[in-house]
């Protein structure tokens, strides 16, 4: 389960570039984002209207789709609904200028897999695409092992190299989330949304403080730090085999 | 133009109606007098004729002729204008009626008949014919000229009084209308100036309490309120512009400097990173404003359901506990565990995500403004008709005069200028609470002087009360509290 190569999260898979269909009516913005994604190892196809996007999604098999909510002629949610009705289950990230929680809910209800509000950091988009491509390690095993850390989901105990680590419930939840997604960039927003189920952006560095507490508990003196901060993006539980 | 305006005024129309009513009343009054007078005169002449006939018949029959002749010549002529004696064949014997009046019946009753004298216009007289001894017929007559004269006088009186009264009323009406019109004209001019953009202009309203001035007073109060709202909107607009301009100016200056000087990529990268964080601050302000706008539009009640305050508080404390600890503060949860058994009564009807945001903002603030070693806490209390949630701290406090203002957009106390933030947290909080029909009160902790601390008290309507109004149906009826009876 922890056979993910170290460089995959940042360098992309060497053999096959993941293909992304990006439907966005603001052509300059789409071009900008497209180039950035290409630089990160995605093969990007751009469409600028709803019908063209729908046609492209039907015509060939993409690994991922990014769909803007508001598009000329056919809006993003209708595209997703149409695709899902035709049994096309390409993972879709919905982009929107609307930040409302309701809009997010309706975006996910229509069949979107994730929702991102403009403006966003490129790292955030990349991290979320990564997350969409590689489902978390949702094994039914009762033990999770990532690098030197062992987590017993039944006894709710954690050990590093045989040393018991005493965690609060919230720290346990956070570590479990990280361990199911090793070597992947996880942004602060993703952590807030998934671990705490919060949809707002706090004014303080909440996530950093929580990560800091967890770090101090799992990294003993002299041990290799496992949770790394990724500048401008978030955090990563980095382990080498 | 002026004249037609004048005649169209409500005052003038009212005057016309009053004049009409007055004329009507006069006509009615005089009409009654007229009818009454006619009736009275008829009865009087009947009485006179009957009485005279009685007197004449009581005398010996031989005197009748003399008496009739005397009467026609004497001063009684004024009362009985005609008297004559005829035989049974209606032939003239004596008196001043030379011919038998046409159509006269001898029945002892008075009849009004038209006389047609050969040398004059026909006229009406009242006649009485009675049988006298000696197979004769006595005829007495009385003319109607007294009544005619009275009628004539009455008619003249009507005309003489109606014309000046109507003229006087119309004059009064015109003057009053003119005054009203000129006042309305002034108001129109004032309104024109207001519509032209002069929002400080007010309608002329004197000290009088008539309806026009009361109306002008109400309009002026409305204008005051509107002007105040406009000022507020303008202030908010200015605040937004100002708050956005500050980070934008910084970002621009950084980029300009980076462009102007040849710099290595590290310096360039730093400049860009700083510019980016400035832009992010702009975005966070815009996002917060959009969210406030969205919440204030009240479209968000879709996500409403019963929310357990103890659970909510446990979650938020779980989230903020490490921060408080890092800042050297104690975060107290007085909701859970403090009063067991009341937990299920501490349920409010609302949107969990939004309420979490409220608490997060309040705790965030409390942590920011409380010096190390202090305490931040959350407490809850169930009252009969509402649920109270308090967030308190031992921080610098909010001066009494500033408590209303901190809920406004972009307000930052002088004490907090140095603390970063969008300045919109509390306005977001109050927008969310308004959506929940909850009231927010700000107070100081009692009995503290150096660091007065702040208490934010949120009063939610109790769930039972909401339910009884029939307006809200919680989505999850299995929660025990939704069945809490309405406490009165």
UniProtKB/TrEMBL annotation, chain A:
Keyword entries, A-Z: DNA-binding, Phosphoprotein, Transcription, Transcription regulation, Two-component regulatory system
SUPFAM superfamilies xref list: CheY-like
Source taxon at top rank: Bacteria
Residues annotated to bind DNA: 141-239
Domain OmpR/PhoB-type span(s) in chain numbering: 141-239
Sample GO molecular function, one term: phosphorelay response regulator activity
Modification 4-aspartylphosphate occurs at: 68
One GO process term, biological-process aspect: regulation of DNA-templated transcription
Pfam families, per database record: Response_reg (PF00072), Trans_reg_C (PF00486)
Gene Ontology CC terms: cytosol; protein-DNA complex
Domain annotation Response regulatory: ranges: 19-133
PANTHER family: REGULATOR OF RPOS (PTHR48111), TWO-COMPONENT RESPONSE REGULATOR (PTHR48111:SF76)
Protein name: Two component transcriptional regulator
Automatic annotation (TrEMBL), chain B:
Any one GO CC term of the record: plasma membrane
SUPFAM superfamilies, per database record: ATPase domain of HSP90 chaperone/DNA topoisomerase II/histidine kinase, HAMP domain-like, Homodimeric domain of signal transducing histidine kinase
Key words, A-Z: Kinase, Membrane, Phosphoprotein, Transferase, Transmembrane, Transmembrane helix, Two-component regulatory system
EC category: transferase
Subcellular location: Membrane
CDD domains from the UniProt entry: HAMP, HATPase, HisKA
Protein name in UniProt: histidine kinase
């Amino acid at each position: 389960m922890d056979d993910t190569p170290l460089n995959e999260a940042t360098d992309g898979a060497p053999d096959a570039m993941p293909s992304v269909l990006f439907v966005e009516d603001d052509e300059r913005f789409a071009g900008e984002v497209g180039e950035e994604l290409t630089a990160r190892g995605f093969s990007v196809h751009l469409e600028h209207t709803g019908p063209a996007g729908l046609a492209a999604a039907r015509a060939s098999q993409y690994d991922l789709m990014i769909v803007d909510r508001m598009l000329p002629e056919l809006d993003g949610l209708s595209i997703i609904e149409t695709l899902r009705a035709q049994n096309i289950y390409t993972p879709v990230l919905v982009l929107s200028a609307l930040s409302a929680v309701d809009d997010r809910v309706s975006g996910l209800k229509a069949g979107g897999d994730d929702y991102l509000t403009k403006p966003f950091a490129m790292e955030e988009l990349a991290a979320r695409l990564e997350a969409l491509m590689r489902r978390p390690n949702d094994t039914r095993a009762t033990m999770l092992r990532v690098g030197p850390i062992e987590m017993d989901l039944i006894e709710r105990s954690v050990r590093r190299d045989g040393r018991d680590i005493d965690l609060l419930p919230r720290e346990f939840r956070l570590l479990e989330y990280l361990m199911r997604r090793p070597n992947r960039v996880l942004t602060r927003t993703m952590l807030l949304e998934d671990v705490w189920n919060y949809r707002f952006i706090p004014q303080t560095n909440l996530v950093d403080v929580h990560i800091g507490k967890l770090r101090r508990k799992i990294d003993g003196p002299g041990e290799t730090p496992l949770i790394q901060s990724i500048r401008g993006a978030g955090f990563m539980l980095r382990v080498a085999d | 133009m002026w004249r037609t305006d004048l005649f169209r005024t409500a005052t003038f129309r009212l005057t016309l109606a009053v004049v009409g009513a007055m004329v009507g009343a006069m006509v009615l009054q005089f009409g009654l007098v007229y009818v009454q007078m006619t009736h009275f005169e008829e009865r009087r002449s009947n009485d006179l004729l009957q009485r005279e006939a009685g007197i004449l018949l009581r005398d010996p029959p031989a005197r009748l002729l003399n008496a009739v002749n005397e009467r026609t010549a004497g001063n009684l002529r004024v009362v009985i204008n005609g008297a004559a004696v005829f035989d049974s064949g209606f032939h003239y014997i004596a008196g001043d009626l030379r011919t038998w009046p046409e159509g006269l019946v001898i029945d002892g009753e008075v009849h009004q008949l038209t006389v047609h004298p050969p040398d004059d216009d026909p006229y009406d007289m009242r006649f009485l014919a009675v049988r006298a001894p000696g197979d004769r017929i006595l005829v007495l007559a009385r003319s109607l000229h007294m009544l005619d004269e009275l009628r004539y006088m009455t008619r003249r009186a009507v005309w003489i009084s109606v014309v000046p009264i109507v003229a006087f009323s119309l004059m009064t009406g015109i003057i009053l209308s003119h005054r009203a019109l000129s006042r309305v004209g002034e108001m129109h001019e004032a309104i024109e100036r207001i519509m032209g953009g002069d929002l400080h202009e007010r309608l002329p309203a004197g000290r009088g309490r008539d309806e026009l001035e009361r109306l002008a007073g109400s309009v002026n109060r409305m204008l005051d309120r509107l002007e105040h709202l406009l000022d507020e909107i303008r202030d908010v607009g200015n605040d937004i512009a100002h708050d956005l301009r500050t980070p934008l100016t910084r970002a621009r200056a950084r980029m300009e400097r980076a462009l102007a000087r040849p710099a290595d990529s590290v310096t360039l990268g730093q400049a860009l990173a700083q510019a980016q964080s400035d832009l992010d601050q702009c975005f966070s302000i815009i996002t917060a404003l959009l969210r406030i706008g969205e919440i204030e539009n009240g479209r968000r009640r879709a996500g409403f359901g019963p929310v357990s305050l103890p659970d909510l508080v446990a979650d938020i404390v779980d989230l903020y506990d490490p921060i408080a600890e890092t800042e050297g503060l104690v975060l107290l949860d007085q909701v859970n565990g403090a009063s067991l058994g009341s937990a299920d009564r501490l349920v409010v009807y609302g949107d969990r995500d939004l309420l979490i945001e409220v608490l997060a903002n309040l705790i965030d603030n409390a942590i920011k403004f409380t010096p190390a070693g202090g305490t931040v806490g959350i407490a809850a209390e169930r009252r009969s008709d509402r649920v109270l949630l308090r967030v308190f701290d031992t921080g610098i406090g909010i001066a009494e005069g500033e408590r209303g203002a901190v809920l406004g957009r972009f307000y930052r106390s002088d004490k907090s200028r140095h603390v970063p933030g969008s300045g919109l947290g509390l306005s977001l909080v109050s927008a969310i609470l308004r959506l929940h029909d909850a009231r927010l009160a700000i107070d100081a902790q009692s009995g503290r002087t150096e660091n007065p601390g702040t208490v934010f008290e949120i009063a939610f309507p109790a769930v039972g009360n909401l339910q009884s109004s029939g307006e809200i149906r919680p989505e999850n009826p299995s929660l025990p509290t939704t069945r809490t009876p309405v406490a009165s």
